[in-house]
Structures are given as C-alpha cells and as structure tokens.
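Reopening: Helix-turn-helix transcriptional regulator still failing for me.
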Amino acid sequence: MTTATATAPPGSGSAAGVGPLLREWRRRAGVSQLELALRADSAARHISYIETGKSRPSREMVLRLAEHLDVPVRERNALLVAAGHAPHYPESAPDSPSLAVLRGGLDRLLTGYEPYPALVVDAGYRVWAANRGVSRLLEGVAPHLLTPPLNAMRITLHPEGMAPRILNFREWRSHLLDQMRRQLALLRSAPLRELYEEVSAYPLPPGGEERAGETWPGGAPPALPMVMELDGRRLSFLSVIATFNTPVDVTVSELAMETFLPADPETADHLRSLV
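Support: Ran it again with your exact input. Result attached.
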C-alpha cells in the first residue's frame, strides 16, 4: 500500500492542526481508521500517525482522505491549510468571467422551468438568480426584505415575508431550520450560524399559533409541501434541491437550485393559466 505521509517535525503546528480535523471528519462519517486506510490505499498506522500529529500528510494524501470522507470543498481547503499546504480549490466571485457560461446555463434552466418557481442560492441562502415564478410568491413581502442581497431564509421565515401566507407554517419552518442545522454540521460557517440564530428567533406571524397543521384533501402528499395562500387560492408545492456533481470551485460547490413542483392538479392548473 502507498503511504503518502511524511514525518512531521516535533511540535509541528500544521500536522497537529490537521490531525484532529481529519479525526473529526472520519468520526462524522462513521469510518474506522482501518476502513479509511483501505479506501485511501494506505495503512491504519499511517492514519493514526496523521491524526495524532506524528506524521504530516502530503497534499495528495489530504485530498485523497477528504475525498473518501466526503468533506465539502471549502473544508478540504481548510484541511490543506491546516496541514501546511496551499488551498487546492479556487473560490470564484459570483460575477467572475470564469463563471459566465455557468450563469448563462442556470438562467436558461430557470426560465425553462416557468411558470413554476425556481431559484439558485448559495451556502448562506443568498439568492443568485430566480425566475418569474418566484416573483409571484413574493407578492406582499415587505420591501426591506427585497433589498439586495436577497436572502431566501429571511424572506420565507420573516413575519413580514412569506410566512403569513404559508398555511402550514410551523411544519415548513421546522423543515427549513432542520435543513440549516444539517448544513451547520458540515460547514464551520459563522455567517450561516448567525443567520440560523436570527431566523430561528423570528416570532410567529399573526395567526401562526393557530396554524399548527394542515389537512390534505385526497390523502397525504408524498413529501412535505409548502402550502400557500396566493391570489385567493390554496397552492401547494413540493421542493426539489439540485447541486453540482464533482465541483472543483468553492463557489460552485455551494450553489443549489431549488425548484417547486406543484403538489396537486389545482396548483399546476393555476400556474399554467398565468402563462
């Protein structure tokens, strides 16, 4: 087996820093040192040496271990820096020319999905782009929430946002907060933590105390929908989230496209009638 590690100097800060981080990711993945070693074509002894700071892993070994532990791209760069190496993955600005083709492709996807709502957000739920279907959902939202940069979580959960018109608000709020907690378990992001603490502290919208549940005509849907009152109608949507496979840019790795499928024929018919 190959052993892409090097003995670390005594008291090496980089080796000591990367070891606990890798151990934490391995434990999160529920993988033993032996299993990780087999996956990475190494040896359990070398994994142990890396985690205890006795060996400093090479750049290639850090990337290999991160790949087998399914570490997010941003955190892979953090592992490399902790091991004394330069970051491997670039982080492009949203308006970077290198992402122009990608932005164009996303715009075409959003437009092609109309009249159904769809938007693209980053890891902090900042809205990159949205189609006209989303603009219909924003009717009645307070202007201060629609001042760029737009944040999808704030717009949805704020009592002056979409919250008053979400008929199953408590269930949908619980779903969104659970989603954020799962993200926080993967990303050591102070801004995301601050956003979570902000939106989870929002008061319920007027009448929210009574809207603890929602009845489902014709039986329960296959997944939890977001049920809204819009244009005097009861509209129901299922959320689908898509991300990029094998991203090699930090920014792209944290993008997600959320599309809203009609959860019942009435919603589908109403949206199509607006075209």
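Residues 1-15 have pLDDT under 50 and may be disordered. If you still see a failure, please send the error message rather than a screenshot.
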